[in-house]
């Protein structure tokens, strides 16, 4: 019974630390660029797009498809980096334990 109580306390501590980490990651950002920096996407650790910068030179009504491709590439890479950042920080917190459904 004592082991179960200790296990529950450890689980509560871990849950509390995970919530704090998720809040912290929401404040941290990663960025990715496409088209040699013509499009930049910035995402936070919650995997939310928070900023998108598009260079004036790439905006052309004649080549909308290229602009769309650059935006998609930058956004997808920024979100991938946000996922990697989250996984890395969660791995530090859990000591490498595989906890399904966390991220």
Helix and strand arrangement:
Layout (H helix, E strand, L loop, with lengths): L1 H26 L1 E6 L4 E6 L4 E6 L9 H31 L9
Antiparallel strand pairs: 1-2, 2-3
Helix pairs in contact: 1-2
List its traits.
103 residues; Ybab, Chain: A; three-stranded antiparallel β-sheet; 55% helix
Q: How does this structure look, described?
A:
The chain has helices at 2-27, 64-94, and strands at residues 29-34, 39-44, 49-54. It has 103 residues and is α+β, with helices and mostly antiparallel strands. Strand 2 and strand 3 form a beta hairpin. The chain has one domain: Nucleoid-associated protein YbaB-like domain (Ybab, Chain: A, 2-Layer Sandwich). Helix 1 (2-27) runs antiparallel to helix 2 (64-94). The chain is built from two helices and three strands. Helix content is 55%, strand content 17%. The two termini are 31 Å apart. It has a three-stranded antiparallel sheet with strand order 1-2-3.
In brief:
The chain is an alpha+beta fold.
Structural class: alpha+beta
- Terminus-to-terminus distance: 31 Å
Q: What is the β-strand count?
A: 3
Low-confidence stretches: none
CATH architectural arrangement: 2-Layer Sandwich
The helix content is: 55-70%
Beta fraction of the residues? Answer: 15-25%
Return the CATH class. Alpha Beta
Mean pLDDT: 87
């Amino acid at each position: 019974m004592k082991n179960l109580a200790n296990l529950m306390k450890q689980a509560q501590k871990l849950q509390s630390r995970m919530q704090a980490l998720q809040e912290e990651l929401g404040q941290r950002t990663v960025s990715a660029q496409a088209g040699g920096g013509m499009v930049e996407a910035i995402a936070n650790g919650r995997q939310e797009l928070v900023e998108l910068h598009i260079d004036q030179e790439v905006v052309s009504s004649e080549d909308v498809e290229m602009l769309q491709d650059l935006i998609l590439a930058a956004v997808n890479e920024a979100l991938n980096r946000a996922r990697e950042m989250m996984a890395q920080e969660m791995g530090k917190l859990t000591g490498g334990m595989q906890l399904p459904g966390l991220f």
